[in-house]
Each structure stands twice: as C-alpha cells, then as structure tokens.
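in:
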C-alpha cells in the first residue's frame, strides 16, 4: 500500500502540492497546488462537471458566493449545530477531535491515559467581519459547504431554468472549516474545494433517487480508473447522521491509515428548503402540475471533496515496477486526469531536432495538454513522464528528419510505435480516448 510519505514526497518533488506559506514555516491549514497539481485538480473537477452537468439535461450549474448572509447559516442550523467535539489533553495541552481518536482514553501526542477534558462543542465555521468595524452585526462566515448557496438560489434557478422535478443544481467551489486537527496532507485542510449537487425530487421518489445516485457516483470513480478494491460504500449508523439527514452513505477510499471518506451522499429531505422558507419568508415550494398541488421537494445530495478526491486518485495511480533491474515509478492515471496527456521530447538539444519538434508540440497543444521537454537524457525524461502520469511520449530523433515520423511510447507497456507526423494527431486521439 502506498504510504502517505511517498505521496507527499512525490508531490513536493514533482510539483503537485506544497504547504501553504511554506517560506514562512507553513500554515498547516491549506496547500498550494503546483504546476502538475493544478492540472490534476482541474481535470478531476472537469470530469465531475462533465458527468454531473454537461452530459445531463436534468442538471444545471451555479457558482454562488463564499460569503453569504449570516442568516443563511442560522436557518441551515450550522450556527448552532455544526460542531465537532473538542477535547484537550491536560498534560500536553494538545487538542483533538474526540470522535476521531484511535483510543478514546489515550492522548495520541504524549501517550498518557485519562487526561482528556470533557468534550466541548467547537463550531467549525471560520468567521470574519464585513466592512470596517468588527461588531457582532457585521459578523459573517466563510461557507463551510457549497450546498446552502444552491438552496438559497432554488427559486431563482427554478424560474430561469424552467426545470420540472426531478432536477439537479451543481456547484464546485471553495469551502472553509476550522478543523480541530487538519492533517494527512490535503485530506483534511481548513480551506478545500467541494463538488456538490442537490437533486430536487418528489418526496415519494427520494429513496429511489438516493439509490440511483449512490450507484452513479460509485461508477464515476471506477470509470476514471480507481481500483474497486480500494473503494467502498458505507452506510451511516443512526448515531452518525447529520442534523438534516434521513439517510447517508459515505463513499470511502482505503487510505494507508484505513478507510476514510471521499464523498457523502445524503437524503437531506425537505429540511433545507423548509428552513429557508421559514427564515426568509419566501415560498420555496414547487407547483406540481400533475397533482395541482404545492410540494416542498426532497433533496438527494452527492457531496464530494475535489481536493480529497484528487489526492485519492493520485494515491491510487501510484505504482512501482522493476524494469531491467531498475525501479520505475509510474502514475497510472487515466488520460482524462493526467496533468499532461502527451510529452514531446526531441532526442537531443540540437536546433535541427528542437525546432521541428517544437512545431509538433504547438500543433498538438491545440488538441491535447502537452509538455515539451528538452532537458536531460531521453531515459531520464521518460522516467519523469512515467512518474507524473503522462500516458504518451512523442520522441523526435534524427531519423525523423528523413522519414517524417516520430516514436510514440506508451507509459504503461513502454511499447514504441513509429507514426508519421501527418497522422500523429489522429493516432494520439484514438489512443487517448480508446
Ligand atoms: P469528515 O467526517 O471527514 O470531517 P464530513 O462528513 O464532515 O467529513 P461532508 O460535510 O459530508 O464531510 O463534506 C463533503 C465532502 O467534502 C467530504 O466527503 C470531503 O470529501 C470534503 N471535505 C469535508 N471536509 C473537508 C476538509 N476539511 N478537507 C478536505 N475535504 C473536506
């Protein structure tokens, strides 16, 4: 199993993610995504958007503000109940989230037993003030989930999109939680990105849609190449359910520290729309033409973490192999997720090779995400591309000047094909989509 340390090292070495504010000692709350990480993260988000919005006629997207009226969080219940149980060790004064302790009576930091204080309910919302004065009236929160931005726009979206039930509204964006113990690299941070979709349906159909979305979301991970042995669906016990939920499952990944959540899929009932109707005084019901009555829709919510999921895809893709006595590191990412789909590598730095291969890279760049690399020996460049997950490398050598053909090397099989430059685009498209 790939250790956390291996992935953290790879990330730093190759440029997937760096600790935020690193030159000032790091913040332990957030990460900055480097040149490769930003591509991978963006690809994960694009694939989610494509599957949830672009390829469906019954889902639309929005992009709501991070800062919303405080009343949103009063209505949703977050101001009063979005808390984690905080305990402090009386000996070493470290603080922990009680429900995540491996041994409830033992401090993971100093190892002493029975030293914890009584749990305190710690609200996870990050606070700030709007405007120049820091008064209670100006208090606002950075959103802890993207979902509420969808609920408060329910009437707007219904009006402009003229959708009939069932339909969904999707959103990708930053969320913030003042986690008691951020950790495990980008798994738990205080600033992160979510991909959430609220599926509005008739209350009588909610259970059926819940099953539908659990299945659809499971298939999304598998279709993008995640190993089925590392993915499971775990239903919540009654004691775990959130204040709004009737039924929840977690989509979990087998991390090196055990199974942990990538996504929660919940039946939120009509809780949120009713709360916002009541607190805002606006009617957030739906007129059902079939029965001629008003209903408050039920909501099925698949809520995934973009940053956490990106991390899981990275871990899942990592493998090492022995090739002719040497170790090779490969990121077997699906071509739809790989930061670069194609690397163009002139065999030597001689202008006679660099110039034509640079033209090829420009041409391919219109269609694929392409890296152009002229540093080091070809063997080292192949190894680098394997390690960052580039599915195909195109090498331009001296013979290419004669035969107008290049060598295409496959990341997984290491097999090489000679392909004419004039049919390269079509060849690559077929290989990458196939
Ligand atoms: P956890 O139990 O891990 O704290 P949660 O059950 O509170 O998570 P949800 O409220 O269901 O999480 O949020 C939906 C998704 O958002 C999670 O499945 C996860 O992928 C992501 N997420 C939540 N909190 C964080 C965080 N602090 N850092 C990174 N991703 C997060």
């Amino acid at each position: 199993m790939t250790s956390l340390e291996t992935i953290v090292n790879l990330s730093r070495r190759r440029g997937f993610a760096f600790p935020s504010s690193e030159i000032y000692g790091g913040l332990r709350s957030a990460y900055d995504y480097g040149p490769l990480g930003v591509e991978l993260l963006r690809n994960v988000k694009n694939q989610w958007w494509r599957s949830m919005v672009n390829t469906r006629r019954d889902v639309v997207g929005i992009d709501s503000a991070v800062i919303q009226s405080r009343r949103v969080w009063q209505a949703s219940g977050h101001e009063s109940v979005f808390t984690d149980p905080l305990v402090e060790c009386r000996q070493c004064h470290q603080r922990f989230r009680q429900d995540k302790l491996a041994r409830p009576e033992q401090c993971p930091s100093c190892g002493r037993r029975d030293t914890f204080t009584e749990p305190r309910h710690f609200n996870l919302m990050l606070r700030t003030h709007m405007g120049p004065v820091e008064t209670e009236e100006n208090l606002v929160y950075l959103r802890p989930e993207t979902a509420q931005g969808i609920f408060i726009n329910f009437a707007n979206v219904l009006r402009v999109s003229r959708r009939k039930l069932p339909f969904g509204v999707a959103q990708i964006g930053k969320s913030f939680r003042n986690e008691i113990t951020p950790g495990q690299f980008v798994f738990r941070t205080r600033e992160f990105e979510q991909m959430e979709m609220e599926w509005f349906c008739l209350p009588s159909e909610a259970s059926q849609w819940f099953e539908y979305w659990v299945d659809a979301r499971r298939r999304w991970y598998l279709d993008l190449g995640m190993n089925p042995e590392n993915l499971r669906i775990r239903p919540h016990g009654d004691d775990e359910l959130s204040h709004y939920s009737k039924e929840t499952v977690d989509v979990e990944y087998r991390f090196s520290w055990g199974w942990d959540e990538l996504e929660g899929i919940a039946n939120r009932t009509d809780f949120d729309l009713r709360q916002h109707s009541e607190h805002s005084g606006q009617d957030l019901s739906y007129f059902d033409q079939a029965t001629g009555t008003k209903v408050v829709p039920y909501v099925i919510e698949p809520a995934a973490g973009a940053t956490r999921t990106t991390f899981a895809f990275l871990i899942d893709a990592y493998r090492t192999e022995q090739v002719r006595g040497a170790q090779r590191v490969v990121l077997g990412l699906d071509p739809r997720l790989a930061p670069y789909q194609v690397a163009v590598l002139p065999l030597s730095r001689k202008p006679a090779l660099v110039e034509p291969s640079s033209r090829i890279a420009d041409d391919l760049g219109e269609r694929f995400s392409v890296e152009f690399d002229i540093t080091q020996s070809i063997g080292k460049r192949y190894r680098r591309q394997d390690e960052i997950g580039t599915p195909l490398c195109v090498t331009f050598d001296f013979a290419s000047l004669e035969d107008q053909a290049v060598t295409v090397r496959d990341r997984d099989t290491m097999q090489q094909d000679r392909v004419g430059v004039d049919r390269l685009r079509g060849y690559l498209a077929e290989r990458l989509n196939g």
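note: Residues 145, 177, 179, 188-189, 192, 194, 261-264, 303-305, 307-308 surround adenosine-5'-triphosphate (CB under 6 Å).
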